[in-house]
Amino acid sequence: MKDRHATMDKNTDASVREYLSFLVGGQDYCVDIMQVREIRSGAKATTLPHSPSYMRGVINLRGTVLPIMDLATRLDIASDEASGRSVIIVVAQGDQVVGLMVDAVSDILAVRSADLQPPPDLPADNQRSFVSSLTIKNDIMIRVLDLSTVLPRFESEVA
User: Fold this and answer.
1) Are strands 87-93 and 55-61 parallel, antiparallel or unpaired?
2) CB–CB of 105/73 below 8 Å?
3) Residue-wise over 80-89: b if at least 16 C-beta within 10 A, else e?
4) pLDDT for 71
5) In this structure, how many other beta carbons lie within 10 angstroms of the beta carbon of residue 152?
6) Residue 58 pLDDT more than 70?
7) Distance between CA atoms of 36 and 45, rounded to whole angstroms?
8) Where are the alpha helices (DSSP H) in the chain?
9) What would the pLDDT profile of 7-51 be if each residue is shown by its tens digit?
10) What are phi and psi of 90, to 5 degrees?
């Protein structure tokens, strides 16, 4: 009986966090669910001149101007532009709120801290700074995005 309770305590580990998983260019990514404000079907963004190539423009979100980032372009992932991104995940990092254009939302994952692994050091890995950790669910490797590095600092990039 004692062993059974030990197993139950292990399964109710307080270090479990939830992540929203999604597809970008056929690859699996996720963000902490606490950073997600809402999920919207794709909306036509109004482009702004002199924006970085990964910024698709802005949309009107209930009276607020929301910048929209094409996550595939930001991560330098080759993707089929003709397929179009069909989902916008509205995320917040501190006071900054941005819409991330992705191909599709997949699932909500419960991940134990022990199941998160640091990404390997690769010499020419441009995405290394954008990925904080990796996890495996159902034999699929999922990258955990670090929004603090993915989201641009608008003040510095405007100047």
Assistant:
1) unpaired
2) no
3) eeeeebebbb
4) 94
5) 18
6) yes
7) 20
8) 2-11, 71-74, 147-150, 154-158
9) 444 445 569 999 999 999 999 999 999 999 999 987 789 999 999
10) -85, 115
Phi-psi region of 92 (alpha: psi -120 to 50; beta: other; left: phi over 0): beta
**41 closest CA partner among 12, 68, 15, 78:** 68
Closest alpha carbon to 70 in 125, 30, 24: 24
| Whole-Å CA distances, 119 to 43, 44, 71, 128, 132 | 33, 34, 19, 7, 7
In the three-class reduction of DSSP (H, G, I as helix; E, B as strand; rest coil), residue 140 is classed as: strand
Angle at 78 between CA 77 and CA 84, to 5 degrees: 100
pLDDT at 77: 87
* C-alpha span between 38 and 87 (Å, rounded): 11
- State how far the Cα of 34 lies from the Cα of 52, in Å rounded to an integer: 27
The pTM (predicted TM-score) of the whole model is 0.81
Q: What percent of the chain has pLDDT over 90?
A: 64
Residue 150: phi and psi, rounded to 5, are -75, -45
